[in-house]
Structures are given as structure tokens and as C-alpha cells.
Amino acid sequence: MRRNIVIAAVTAAALIGGGTATALATTGDADRGTAPRADVSVSDDGGVRDEADGQGDDAAGERDDRDDADRVSSAKVTAAEAIAAALRETPGTAVSADLDAADDDGDDRRERAAWEVDVLAGDGTWHSVRIDPGTGKVLGSHRDGDEDDTAEVRAALKGTSVDAADAARAAAGKGTVTSVDLDDDGDDDGDGRAAWEVETRTDSKGEQDWRVDPGTGKVTADRSDSDDSGSDDSGSDDD
Prior knowledge:
Layout: E1 3-8, H1 12-16, E2 21-29, E3 33-34, E4 40-42, E5 48-50, H2 53-74, H3 79-89, E6 93-100, E7 114-120, E8 126-131, E9 138-143, H4 150-157, H5 164-171, E10 176-183, E11 195-202, E12 206-212, E13 219-221, H6 223-229, E14 236-237
Antiparallel strand pairs: 1-2, 2-3, 2-4, 4-5, 6-7, 6-10, 7-8, 8-9, 10-11, 11-12, 12-13, 13-14
Helix pairs in contact: 3-5
């Protein structure tokens, strides 16, 4: 049986002209029809690009969003509870707490998702404590290197009554708290005042950012986050 081979090629003139052309090559039996191969684009600089690349990036972003949602929904230990557990392990002042995804650095103790709490001890040393988000158990802790902002952190919290755990509890009404961090100089919001920055997540609104006053516990929408989104649907709490 005679086979037909059909090749559709791009002429040299199309490439020289700087355009992007597409070549499609097919082979098959004349009686059975042909099955097309995947399209490949030839770019202006002679490179080859798979047309599905953009779709792959979108899919990766969707997977990341699903991973974040799964991590939050599976955490039974709240931010405030994780901070309390970390301070029992390493007494001091909790400066931040983040619900981190699993690490892939080869250290078995760090491959699982965990709360990571940064603690400033009374002697001025910094410590990182990892807490199991399912059980509240300490997975490990280590001393961090010296931090340049130790004095700034202490100054920002001097005389205040709201600590990291209090800030997490104050913002819990906005959604599931996934991180608490001290903005010790107000640079992130531009008002020059220290505040606790809290991130929450809900199924309906996704991630949202809040600021908690370290003196009063008042929760307000993060101004920079509101500016980026073009609206502020949060209002404030006077708790």
C-alpha cells in the first residue's frame, strides 16, 4: 500500500522577515488518515517554544493556591497555640509565627509543614522553633544568627500590652491566621508606628492582610494591601 508523506514547512523568507511561524508535520497512511503532532513555534530569535508553556504556568499557580488552602485547612493548631508552645520550649518574646509549607532541603525534620516561630530570648539571642500544626508538639528548634534589629524590636514592644499571640487571637475573627509578624517601625504601612502584621485566609476571600495595634489590639486593614487591591472591604474592629 502506498504511503503519503506530507510536510508543511516554513519558508526562509518568513524567518528572515522576523515573523513567528508555525510548522506542522504529519505522517500517515492515506487510507487511515493522519494524526497531527503538537504545534511548535519558532520565535524571532530562532528559539523554539512549546505552545503549552503558558498553560503550564497557570496550572502551577493553581496548584500553589490549592496547596496553600490544603495547608491551612489541615492545621488544627492555631497561631496563638503554636506561639504558646514555642515559648514553653524557648522562653522569651515571640516576634513572628508563620505556617510554612514543607521544606525540601533534605532535612527530614523540616520536610513537613509546620508553624515556625521566631523568639527573642531574654539574653538577646534569637531562636526558631518549629511546631507541628496537627499536634502542637515541638518538631525542633535552633538558635539563629544575631539579628541587627534586636534593639528596634524591644523598643517597639516596650510598654505595649498586646503580644504576638494576642494579635493572632484579635485577627482570628477575620479568617484563619496563617502568619503574625512585627512591623517594628511602621515602614510597611507608611505611618511610622509599630504594629503586628497578621495574614488570614478564608475560602471566600483568599488571603487578606491586617494590622493589629500593639497597644490596644485594634484590628484594621493593611493600608498597603488595600491600596493594591483598590478597595478596603474590611473596616476595623474596636475590640
